[in-house]
Design a protein that fits this description.
By secondary structure, this protein is of the alpha+beta class. It is about 35% helix and about 35% strand. It has a single domain, classed as GTP cyclohydrolase I, C-terminal domain/NADPH-dependent 7-cyano-7-deazaguanine reductase, N-terminal domain (GTP Cyclohydrolase I, domain 2, 2-Layer Sandwich), CATH 3.30.1130. Strands 1-2-3-4 form a four-stranded antiparallel sheet. Helix 3 (about 55-65) packs antiparallel against helix 4 (about 70-85).
């Protein structure tokens, strides 16, 4: 079993409950960790025997490009897309951070973290 981590993926997206957020947009940082059996690829050194990092990134990007009101909703869509494309994955840990959220005061970020386990 191994863990593949895509950390600090940055997107400019239009998620939020306020109308302005869905028009102006803001930056988001996404961290994705997956657990999968890597025993074959550890020996073979072949891409076909592992979970393709580029494919994981594309799943995240596709869902980040679609507007949502809630980070919880975006996270579920990302995890569903990854599970559909990569059924061998055993665990998905996902964190989505909205940078400089409109909270009426200074704040670095708000985050939503979710876990799915087979």
């Amino acid at each position: 079993m191994g863990t593949i981590m895509l950390e600090g993926m940055e997107f400019f997206s239009f998620h939020g409950c306020f109308k302005e957020e869905q028009v102006i947009g803001t930056r988001f940082i996404v961290d994705l960790n997956i657990e999968v059996d890597t025993s074959v690829s550890e020996t073979s050194d072949l891409l076909r025997d592992t979970t393709d990092y580029v494919g994981l990134y594309r799943c995240v990007k596709k869902e980040m490009d679609q507007k949502s009101h809630l980070l919880e909703h975006v996270a579920k869509r990302i995890m569903d897309a990854i599970r559909l494309e990569f059924p061998a994955i055993n665990v998905i840990d996902l964190k989505i951070a909205k940078i400089n959220p409109p909270m009426g005061g200074k704040m670095q970020q708000v985050c939503f973290k979710s876990r799915w386990k087979k």
